[in-house]
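RECORD TYPE: inverse folding
INPUT: structure tokens
STRUCTURE:
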């Protein structure tokens, strides 16, 4: 009785402690809601740009001499304004520990931007029984992106999570995976020993016994025997546990530990002071990207219960600068010489019967080849920009037979092709006339003034027949590409091809073992008909005209810079080796190549600023400052532009180039 009273007192005490703890967190949550305490975003301390080491890096200086347009020298040094005298005095300026500004200028490099910010959680929001979940949201142009969460977990909260997993683990361990544990093996073996000792003797034998063999011995199947000696109550309870796994997980693990989509999940052990997490997110640039906003929201959880929803904090704004802003958009043109007359050629493989010159559309692949030639002729005849003057047809033959016979045969075949396609041209001309009819011009009094026929396809076309002869050049090319011939056979062919007399050459080839392969596979492809079309441009009188046209390749490179695709831009612009090529090199941090192009260029404001960037990256402060000030003097917008590029901004802070009260070195140098 005494033990029961003590246990009741202990349980009551634990309940009171739990209630007190719950009341404590609820009171703290009410205070946070009342005061609207929230986590915030801030910018990390900004480090000056540190140039990469280079082969021609100049020594660092605290004092520089720059030359103004009037030839006077000015001395620049690390300086601050004296509070009493108002004068600038040389000094070392230390950066503050925290930056309270809500915006920062960032430079895009290599097509990427590193957004660095800090998630600051005030001490008032930290509690060992809570979990704080923060959601950074990024806004770019019209799009938004939820970044990976930052989770701050209290020690007691994590202990409760782990305790839930332990309880669930104990539940899983109570699930029996070996179903033989439900079988009363002792009585089952006694059954075997008493009834079938022969099978009992084989109880440790791993030999497979089928249900049919078992039934022939016992009069029942193995499964029926096992079911008889199985504890069905325990088995049903085990199945219920299996079915309740998801339910029991939700019961024991009220707040699962999430690992996906989390940038940080840290357990806070010491609640003294604010919690600060340095967050860095890299994004790829895109056209028209000028600004990126980041806001933070979040919640506080106690186990699976949300006790506070944090309002969105004031956004951090990153203004993006890119060297693509320095691209020269001036259109570039090419001078092209346009000739009045031009010639185009095509060839087709029209088969002829041996020794014959007539064109047979049904022979071999003639229908397909002839249809292709007809389509070309019709397109040229009806072209709106060119006039077809003449067509020259030359048939060629394989080297079989004598040269004289082949010349005569190819001439006859050319004449046959001329007659065939002249009939086709006449057919096309008549078809066009029937389609377009004639035009009747009516006078003001509605009387018939004149009749004009269609001029399309009305011009007479001259056809010329030429003897193509034996196509030895084509045979040379076919043999060289033939993979069935060995190199030794090809070398022998080249020896025979050097014989001046074609008839002797072909006769010697007949003696070679590879001649049959060449005759069967190469000779048919030499029996071609070549067409040469002579045309002139409509309305053009002079033989040549010089015209200019937009250099589309160059303009594609310029557009690629505007789209921040600098590798593609360099592929287009590298052959030009001019200013925009240097811009692409600077964007890719290939400073030596950029300097090689920029150094001999006229010193415009943009060139000076590009040189300032290159010199700053190499650590040559003297030349970097000089070119930056020259650029500011030439174009005042570069005074503020310098704050956007970290290389130039570091020089501005180091040497106080942009002074207070609106005075700039652009003013001093004018």
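DESIGNED SEQUENCE:
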């Amino acid at each position: 009785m005494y033990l029961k009273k003590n246990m009741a007192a202990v349980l009551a005490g634990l309940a009171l402690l739990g209630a007190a703890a719950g009341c404590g967190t609820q009171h703290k949550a009410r205070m946070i809601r009342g005061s609207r305490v929230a986590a915030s975003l801030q910018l990390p301390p900004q480090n000056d740009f540190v140039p990469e080491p280079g082969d021609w890096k100049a020594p660092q200086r605290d004092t520089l001499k720059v030359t103004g347009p009037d030839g006077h020298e000015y001395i620049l040094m690390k300086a601050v304004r004296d509070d009493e005298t108002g004068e600038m005095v040389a000094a070392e300026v230390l950066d503050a520990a925290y930056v309270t500004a809500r915006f920062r200028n960032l430079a895009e490099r290599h097509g990427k931007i590193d957004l660095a910010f800090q998630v600051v959680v005030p001490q008032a929001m930290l509690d060992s029984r809570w979990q704080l979940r923060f959601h950074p949201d990024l806004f770019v142009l019209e799009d938004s992106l939820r970044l990976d969460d930052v989770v701050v977990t209290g020690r007691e909260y994590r202990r409760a999570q782990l305790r839930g997993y332990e309880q669930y683990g104990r539940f899983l361990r109570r699930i029996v995976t070996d179903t033989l544990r439900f079988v009363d093996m002792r009585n089952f073996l006694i059954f075997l020993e008493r009834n079938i000792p022969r099978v009992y003797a084989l109880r440790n034998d791993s030999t497979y016994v089928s249900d049919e063999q078992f039934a022939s011995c016992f009069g029942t199947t193995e499964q029926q025997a096992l079911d008889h000696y199985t504890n069905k109550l325990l088995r049903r309870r085990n199945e219920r546990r299996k079915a309740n796994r998801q339910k029991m997980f939700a019961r024991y693990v009220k707040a699962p530990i999430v690992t996906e989509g989390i940038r940080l999940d840290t357990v806070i052990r010491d609640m003294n002071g604010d919690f600060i997490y340095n967050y860095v997110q890299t994004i790829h640039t895109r056209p028209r990207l000028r600004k990126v906003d980041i806001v933070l929201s979040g919640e506080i959880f106690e186990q699976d219960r949300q006790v506070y929803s944090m309002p969105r904090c004031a956004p951090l704004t990153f203004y993006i600068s890119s060297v693509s802003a320095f691209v020269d958009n001036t259109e570039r043109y090419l001078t092209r010489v346009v000739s009045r007359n031009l010639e185009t050629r095509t060839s087709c493989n029209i088969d002829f019967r041996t020794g014959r010159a007539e064109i047979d559309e049904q022979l071999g692949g003639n229908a397909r080849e002839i249809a292709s030639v007809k389509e070309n002729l019709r397109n040229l005849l009806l072209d709106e920009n060119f006039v077809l003057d003449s067509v020259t047809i030359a048939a060629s033959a394989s080297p079989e037979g004598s040269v004289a016979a082949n010349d005569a045969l190819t001439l006859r075949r050319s004449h046959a092709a001329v007659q065939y396609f002249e009939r086709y041209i006449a057919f096309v001309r008549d078809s066009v006339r029937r389609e377009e009819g004639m035009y009747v011009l009516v006078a003001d009094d509605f009387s018939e003034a004149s009749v004009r026929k269609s001029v399309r396809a009305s011009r007479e076309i001259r056809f010329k027949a030429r003897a193509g002869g034996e196509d030895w050049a084509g045979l040379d090319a076919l043999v060289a590409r033939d993979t069935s011939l060995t190199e030794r056979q090809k070398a022998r062919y080249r020896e025979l091809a050097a014989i001046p007399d074609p008839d002797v050459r072909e006769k010697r080839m007949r003696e070679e073992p590879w001649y049959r392969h060449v005759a069967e596979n190469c000779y048919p492809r030499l029996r071609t008909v070549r067409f040469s079309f002579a045309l002139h441009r409509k309305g053009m009188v002079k033989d040549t005209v010089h015209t200019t046209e937009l250099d589309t390749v160059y303009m594609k490179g310029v557009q690629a810079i505007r789209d921040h695709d600098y590798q593609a831009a360099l592929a287009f612009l590298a052959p030009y080796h001019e200013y925009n090529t240097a811009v692409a090199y600077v964007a890719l941090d290939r400073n030596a190549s950029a300097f090689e192009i920029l150094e001999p260029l006229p010193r415009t404001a943009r060139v000076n600023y590009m040189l300032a960037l290159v010199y700053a990256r190499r650590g040559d402060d003297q030349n970097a400052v000089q070119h930056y000030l020259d650029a500011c003097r030439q174009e005042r917008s570069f005074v503020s532009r310098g704050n956007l590029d970290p290389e130039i901004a570091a020089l501005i802070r180091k040497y106080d180039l942009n002074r207070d009260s609106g005075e700039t070195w652009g003013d001093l140098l004018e």
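NOTES: The mean pLDDT is 79.
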